[in-house]
Amino acid sequence: MKLITVKRATQIEKRFTPKMGELRTKVTYIKKQFLSIPFKTVHKYRETYYGEIKDCESCELAR
To answer: In angstroms, rounded to a whole number, what is the distance separating the alpha carbons of residues 33 and 56?
Structure first.
């Protein structure tokens, strides 16, 4: 049995970009888990309207 695992989960979130305004996008989180308890987010990225993959640093959460 592995003690540390890596899981990937996708959620739909509202994001805001200055050029497009508010948009709903799929955000994928890659998290480390210790005994099925998540303790660290390794990386998160999103899929754009055109199907490209971008880092979530370029946009902020919608208000």
So the answer is: 21
